[in-house]
Amino acid sequence: MLILGRALAYAALFIGLIFVPLPAQILSWSGVSRPAAIGPWQVAGALASGAGGVIAGWCVLTFALLGRGTPAPFDAPRRLVQRGPYGVVRNPMYIGGAFALGGAALFYRSAALAAYTALFLLWAHLFVRLYEEPALRRRFGVEYDSYRARVGRWLPRHARESATPAAASKSRIRPGERGLETQEERVARVVREDIAIVAYDPLWPRLFLAEAAHLRSCLPGELVGRIEHFGSTAVPGLVAKPIIDMLVEVADLQATRERIAPLLERQGYDFFWRPTQGDDGPPFYAWFIKRDATTGARTHHIHMVERHFSEHWDRLLFRDYLIAHPEVTTEYAALKVRLAAEWPQDRVAYTNGKTAFIVRVTALAKRDKDGM
User: Fold this and answer.
1) Domain covering 193-369, topology
2) Which of 80, 90, 99 is CA-nearest to residue 156?
């Protein structure tokens, strides 16, 4: 409540200066008075100003409740805000302010107030470019780089499947609807989902342990062997997609397909009988996507393979090498951020872009393991 109170107080001070006395003074200087009658211009202006006020108020609440801070530069949010209006554009508060001022210009049919609105937008653009963006990059690092690659500064970019909980739910198929999808449609649905790289979260290892315990509690014990945490979320300090990669040893993949897949699909997991080589190259293995029950966003990727699938188990060598070599981890992080910016909605291209690096580092890990 204290943070919300500060946010509202700073917003009131800003509004009190920029959006009330200065526009009133401009109207007075230009000799414009209140319209004698309400016409189309006044209705349009009032609607625009009202919309701007709603957007600005929404931004203030989002800063306080999600970001744990205020719009003021000296009391900025502690967390990078990427949801609500900030999931559409990066600077919705200034856009809301411009709508409010532009609406007033329409209401009074004032060229002077329209010019003031243009000056406000110019100031906002320069302030964002010269101060806010460098400050956010220093504060949030690669998390902000990923956000900036996905969300436009002033205009919305192409809609992405998982930009919001509602959009993410569109990529999710309910268990009763799975039979209506072809394999090609299912693959197309999952590969076009958004790629978001975020800063390392210390909660990830606990999410792995919780899911591993869940799998052991509900799956046939005679089929399930060791369960490992791999991928970027298993490397402390490494940026990653916020999805836990898990490698599960199973005794028999055919039995996994017949017994485990139906069980997990009933719980809402997506199941794929996935090739290890190309689009249709054997051997095949069982791959599951677990999603957040509320938003539909991916939370876990579960790879089930037999013990002899050496290509999969080599991923643990890659994981351990990154943990032991921070300089390689830094190089990998830069590659991931660049690829996520280049291919924000193409998971295949994003993955292919990492292949050469992973192959090279895995070879180094094998050489170290063999003592060469």
Assistant:
1) Beta Polymerase; domain 2 (3.30.460)
2) 90
